[in-house]
Design brief:
352 residues; mainly alpha; two-stranded antiparallel ribbon; disordered N terminus
Length: 352
């Protein structure tokens, strides 16, 4: 069965490899030039939160932001070269990277110019995120087979799915916007978000690869032929993230910024909606979920107790910093958790 699957999708595998390689080479080739350009045009680099870890005020001060341009630029160029541009899902994913990336870029630009860690208001960000998500989900549903269009598949159970009817649209919007903000919250330590995004995209690529082949029925996955090009898209984005990670590894020479984190999170949510693996995203992106929940707990606990804190600092990666954990130690351990969750997500393929 596996041999037949590989033979059938031979072209996809070849193009995915070259898309990955192309984006990686572009990112590695352009990284130093982008860093020098941003250093020249960003006086003082990314503003550091005063209420964040005090060590960051010394170790991260002066580091330029907007590094997401490196990821998005290399990925988009590679996608245009290696993806089938007749596929509507490819264009929707490109739209997500451009709109969400543009939103993050505008936010980063104001932060740098006004030297403030808070630029665009939360309401404005959410409006742009949900408006774009509505358009994406609506078009995706119209290009998904009618019998599974509004289904929410339950992982680890044979062919179990809930038909949400039109409630699926707001649910899909929540998945995309929620993933966008979750990755944004996670992007606080050198290499943390980019490494976890690479892991999550790798797993989603596997689901898209199998789900776009008729053998999807043997794995009890929804068969969506359009998803085959998402494998190439994932590969290109992984290449861009890996190239960025070369420059973002501790001690980071550039930060991803909202330009990258908001766009990459939205892309994860969009691909999950397209291949009907929204709940699997919550599994493989468990670290993103954990980071988001830690912020919610901190805020609610602070309000309910009149100023007391549940964690020493939120998101939770800062809590471990306050406990004395080394930054690199936190990143590697969170990566390990991400890999374990990725294996658990892939294990759902065996539930047949």
């Amino acid at each position: 069965m596996l041999q037949n699957l590989l033979t059938f999708n031979d072209d996809i595998l070849v193009r995915s490899f070259f898309a990955f390689l192309c984006a990686l080479v572009l990112a590695l080739s352009c990284g130093r030039k982008l860093i020098n350009f941003l250093h020249t045009h960003q006086t003082g680099g990314q503003p550091i939160r005063e209420d964040g870890p005090q060590s960051h005020l010394q170790t991260k001060k002066g580091t330029p932001t907007m590094g997401g341009l490196l990821i998005l630029g290399s990925a988009i160029c590679s996608v245009l070269l290696w993806c089938n541009l007749n596929n509507v899902f490819v264009w929707l994913c490109l739209l997500v990277l451009i709109v969400y990336g543009g939103t993050g870029l505008a936010d980063d630009y104001v932060k740098v110019k006004k030297h403030t860690p808070n630029a665009m208001t939360a309401k404005m960000k959410l409006f742009l995120q949900f408006a774009t998500a509505f358009f994406i989900v609506f078009i995706v549903t119209q290009n998904t087979p009618e019998d599974i269009r509004f289904n929410l598949n339950i992982p680890y159970f044979k062919s179990l799915a809930l038909n949400l009817l039109w409630f699926y649209v707001p649910f899909g919007m929540f998945v995309i916007a929620g993933a966008s903000n979750a990755v944004n919250l996670t992007d606080g330590l050198d290499g943390l978000a980019s490494g976890l995004v690479i892991i999550a995209l790798s797993v989603l690529a596997v689901f898209c690869f199998i789900g776009s082949d008729p053998l999807a029925f043997d794995f009890h996955l929804p068969y969506i032929e359009q998803c085959e090009e998402l494998v190439v898209f994932c590969a290109a984005t992984i290449g861009g993230c890996l190239g960025f990670l070369w420059f973002n590894a501790p001690k980071a020479k550039i930060f991803m910024g909202d330009t990258g984190s908001i766009a990459l999170g939205a892309l994860l949510g969009t691909i999950a909606v397209m291949c009907k693996q929204e709940l699997i995203l919550a599994v493989i992106g468990g670290v993103f979920v954990m980071e988001t929940v830690s912020v919610m707990i901190q805020v609610l606990y602070f309000k309910k107790t009149g100023g007391k804190r549940f964690f020493k600092m939120a998101p939770i990666h800062h809590h471990f910093e306050q406990l004395g954990w080394n930054e690199t130690c936190i990143v590697i351990r969170f990566w390990i958790i991400g890999l374990i969750l990725a294996i658990l997500g892939l294990a759902s393929l065996l539930s047949f």
